Structure formats: C-alpha cells, structure tokens
Automatic annotation (TrEMBL):
Record-linked SUPFAM superfamilies: Macro domain-like (SSF52949), Zn-dependent exopeptidases (SSF53187)
Protein name: Probable cytosol aminopeptidase
A cellular component term, taken from the record's GO annotations: cytoplasm
Residues that, per the record, bind Mn(2+) 1: 273, 350, 352
Lineage: Bacteria, Pseudomonadati, Pseudomonadota, Betaproteobacteria, Neisseriales
Gene3D superfamilies the record matches: Leucine Aminopeptidase, subunit E, domain 1, Zn peptidases
Subcellular location: Cytoplasm
Domain annotation Cytosol aminopeptidase: ranges: 348-355
Positions bound to Mn(2+) 2: 268, 273, 291, 352
Gene Ontology terms describing biological process: proteolysis
Catalytic reactions of this protein: Release of an N-terminal amino acid, Xaa-|-Yaa-, in which Xaa is preferably Leu, but may be other amino acids including Pro although not Arg or Lys, and Yaa may be Pro. Amino acid amides and methyl esters are also readily hydrolyzed, but rates on arylamides are exceedingly low; Release of an N-terminal amino acid, preferentially leucine, but not glutamic or aspartic acids
Record key words, sorted: Aminopeptidase, Cytoplasm, Hydrolase, Manganese, Metal-binding, Protease
PROSITE patterns named in the record: CYTOSOL_AP (PS00631)
Length: 521
C-alpha cells in the first residue's frame, strides 16, 4: 500500500472514499461537518434516521453524497467526545480499515488523523494511524495454495493533516510508522512460520540477511563457537535436537561515538518447544512454534531502529535452538554449568528458556552495555497473572522499569512492573547446585525473572515476559508483533535523551536508568 500525507478539505477530494468521524449523540467532527454542509445536511439527515449513533468502532458507508467529489463517505464512530483518547483513536482507525476492506475502494483519504488528542501531536497521530492500518491489513498466507478469504487492500491511503505547516511533521510520523509496522511484520512473519521451516539455522540466516541489507553488522556463532564460549546451559537445551543451535549477534552503531555504551536486546529463540523430557500436553503444542517470539520481536525492533537510523548504539543477541525429547536431551535432575560459572540443577526441562537466556545475558557483558532488555515467552504463570493484555515487566532498576512502562503507554503496548524482591530467590535454592531452574508453582513468573537476575548483575537489566501477549489463539490465531512498538519507542526515547533533542510530543523527560505450565517456559 502507498501512503501519502495531504492537507485539503474533504469535500474536494476526488477519491473512492473519504473517512470521517462521528462522536456519540451524532456530533460531527470538523471534516464530517464540512461534508454535511456541502451536501445540504445529507449526513445529518442520515444520522437523524438512526442508522448510526457514533458508538466507538461502528461504521456506516454512504454512497453518492450530494455535491461531494468522492464516491463514498465512510462514517466512523468515535464514542463519547470527552472520553476520546489514544486507545479509542486506535480502535477507530482499525474499524475504518476493516470497513474499507469490505468495499472495492482502491484509494481513500482518512480525516481521522486530523482529530485532537491531548498530549499527542500530528507526528504521533500519523505514526499510530500508519502502524494500526498495516497491522489491521496483515495476513500470513505464505503456505496457502488457494485463499478464499483474501482481504481487499486499498492501493493508496492518504492521511490528512489540518494545515500545510503540519506536512513536515506528518511525513516524519509516516516514516516512523512505516518502520515500526515493517518491524512488526518482520516479527510476525518469522513467528508464524512452522517449526520445520523456521529452524535455528533459518532464523540465523534471515537475521543476518536483514541486518546486512540495512547496513548493520551481523555475526552468527555455530555450535562449536558456542561451546568454546562455555555456554553449557544453552547447549544443554540444544543437544536434544538434531537441529544445531545458533547464537545471533547483530550490531548497529548509530551514535556519533562507536564507543558509547550500547543498549542490548536479548531475545529467546526456541524455534519449537516440545517441553523436552518434561513433555508438554499434546493439545495446543502446535503453538509452541511461537516460543521464539522473543527473538522475533527483538529482530523486528532492531530492524525498525536501523531503518529509522536511530542515533544510538544497539546490539541484538538471540540464542536459538529447539527443545526436543531424545536420548541426548536434558533430564530432570541434571546439573549443567553456565557461561557465568554458576551451576544449575534442571528440575523441569520445560523451563528451558531461562537456560538459554542466562548464557546470553552473560555474553552481553562483553559489550559494556548501558542497559540490557531481554524479551521472552517465558512463563505460563505470567498469562495467569496478566492475561493476554499486558506484558510482564521486571527490572533490577525501578527507573528502567519506568522508562519501559512509559514507552509502552505511549504506543498502546502496555507492560506492568512486577516485583523482584530478594525473598523470591529462596524458592530457587538447590541442595546440589548453585541454583534450581524452577521455584515451584507460587509466583512462577517472578521466580523465572529472579533466576535471570542472577546472570544480569553487571548492568542495568529488564525482562519482558510476553507469554500472554506475543500471539493469539482461536479464530484470530497468529503472532501479534508485540512488543516491537514498546521496544522501538524505548529506543527512540533513549536516542532523544542521548542527543539532547527536545522531548517529543510534550511528554516530560524520563530519567535514564540508574547504576505455558506455571513453571514452564
């Protein structure tokens, strides 16, 4: 789809469809009112007949509106005007795209982007509309030989701004939105691939090709190199599969000084998780191809950041392998030695994500990072705690947690700060090793984060548990692309602070950080 930014009156648009908003109680937005006036009250008459009341997300397509130059006018319900906020804006945009795809209109101009939302500017409005539009249009049909449910996608979408002086900010928002949407698409495409296609080697090759195509650096470590690093915990998971592991390392040096401390993103890349010897139930096991969503979102965020040319140094680290049952697989009771030298008693082989992440977190130390954020579909317990709405957020610095939480709020990709008190470490005690890989059913997502925190003491660190937010089941089954928007906003905020730019969108400057089964991954 081609996007454009334009300033112009809605009644003068010679296009297949013009999109305008209507608040509850049939109150017209400015764009809708202009069309109503030129049509001698046609839109108001339609609304008075009761066909639409402005309920949030409702739509009504009008044809042949008198004296308007467009073929169609799509009315979109905005809900109560006093309650119209960022969340409602995204919902209205999504509803407009859904309705548009039910028509044969191949071009549209949306005036929803002219609406006013407190604390958000033109750049944000355009960015969010772009991201939501492309997310709503996303389909994964690579393996369908025939698709009877193909969605009609308009060839051109124009996003309107009120003044010509807004065009420059609108173009900036569009560029950001396209980069974020592309990062989400990249992440969703990877996650939706079946495990027999998206193997560790495939993931590594795809990541390398993506990075090199954007001018970033890529290093792929094979099994021998991983062993040479002493990553015994990571390799203990990989040895159960015939698919060899890979350690993916991507580098973007966008800061003026390449010596500036980088932000490091670490993504869990279990391309298929059977549970190992602690085998998962068969029902729903197909969805364990999504156990590499942490890796996919880190790679998607990296892609977006490089495409946006963010002026920061950024490292992406992805340990990737399969977790399979075999004669070589980990057994409950096995003890392995991590790269850090700490020994781990494996009480449950289905808690394998933390076993590969701990070595990746140790590896991150060599970059002397400003901060490290790991992303993982880590625990079913997090789904029980937060459902499928909010990502679990843990950190060893409260200021870092606030940064990430605020970034998520800004883009509608929420995370909730969970506790990480020292007392939870008691549940991880082992009589035979330095630490056990599970801490029992109570506080399962917290003890998983507590385990990881033992390997992240050398730097500021946060952990995002996306087990409930990375994909959907049921009729809408598929990867969501979360938390790519959160991560990109976090990186943008870091870049703004590092370069001393005026804080965007009127938000207060945030401080930088200071110095499945309930237990199963």
């Amino acid at each position: 789809m081609e996007f454009n930014i334009k300033s112009g009156s809605p009644e003068k648009q010679r296009v297949a469809c013009v999109i305008v908003g209507v608040y509850e109680s049939r109150k017209l937005t400015l764009a809708a009112d202009l069309l109503d006036r030129v049509s001698n009250g046609f839109i108001g008459d339609v609304l008075r007949r009761g066909d639409m009341e402005g309920k949030l997300g409702s739509t009504l397509m009008l044809h042949a509106v008198p004296h308007a130059l467009c073929d169609r006018v799509l009315l979109v319900g905005l809900g109560k005007e006093r309650e119209f906020r960022a969340k409602e804006y995204r919902e209205a945009v999504r509803a407009s795209i859904k309705a548009l795809t039910q028509t044969s209109a191949n071009e549209a101009v949306s005036y929803l982007t002219e609406l006013t939302i407190k604390k958000h500017d033109v750049e944000w409005m355009i960015e969010q509309a772009t991201v939501v539009t492309l997310d709503a249009l996303y389909r994964f049909d690579r393996f369908k030989t025939r698709n009877d449910e193909a969605v009609r996608e308009p060839k051109k979408m124009t996003l309107a701004v009120q003044r010509r002086s807004d065009l420059n900010d609108g173009e900036k928002g569009l560029a950001r939105g396209l980069a974020i949407a592309e990062g989400m698409r990249f992440a969703k495409d990877l996650a939706n691939l079946p495990g027999n296609v998206c193997t560790p080697a495939y993931l590594a090759d795809t990541a390398r090709d993506m990075a090199l195509s954007l001018g970033a650096e890529a290093e792929i470590l094979d099994e021998a190199a991983i062993a040479e690093l002493g990553m015994g915990s990571f390799l203990s998971v990989a040895k159960g599969s015939v698919q060899p592991p890979r350690l993916i390392v991507l580098k973007h040096y966008g800061a003026k000084d390449k010596a500036d401390k980088p932000v490091v993103l670490v993504g869990k890349g279990i391309t298929f998780d059977s549970g190992g010897i602690s085998l998962k139930p068969g029902e729903g096991m197909d969805e364990m191809k999504y156990d590499m969503c942490g890796a996919a979102t880190v790679l998607g965020a990296f892609r977006a950041a490089v495409q946006m040319a963010l002026p920061i140094n950024l490292i992406a680290i992805v340990p990737t392998c399969e977790n399979m049952p075999s004669g070589n697989a980990n057994k409950p009771g096995d003890i392995v030695t991590s790269m850090s030298g700490q020994t781990i008693e494996i009480l449950n082989t289905d808690a394998e994500g933390r076993l590969i992440l701990c070595d990746a977190l140790t590896y991150a130390e060599r970059f002397a990072p400003a901060t490290v954020v790991d992303v993982a579909t880590l625990t079913g317990a997090c789904v029980i705690a937060l459902g499928h709405v909010t990502t679990g957020l843990f950190a060893n610095q409260d200021s870092l947690a606030r940064e990430l939480s605020a970034a998520g709020e800004e883009v509608g990709d929420r995370a909730w700060h969970m506790p990480l008190f020292d007392e939870y470490q008691e549940q991880l005690k082992s009589p035979f090793a330095d630490v056990a890989n599970i801490g029992g059913r109570p506080a399962g997502s917290i003890t998983a984060a507590a385990f990881l925190s033992r390997f992240a003491k050398a730097y500021d660190w946060a952990h995002l548990d996306i087990a409930g937010t990375a994909w959907k089941s049921g009729k809408d089954k598929g990867a969501t692309g979360r938390p790519v928007p959160l991560l990109v906003q976090f990186l943008q905020d870091r870049a703004d602070i590092a370069t001393g730019n005026v804080v965007r969108r009127g938000r207060p400057r945030r401080e930088t950080s200071d110095a499945i089964d309930d237990d199963a991954d």
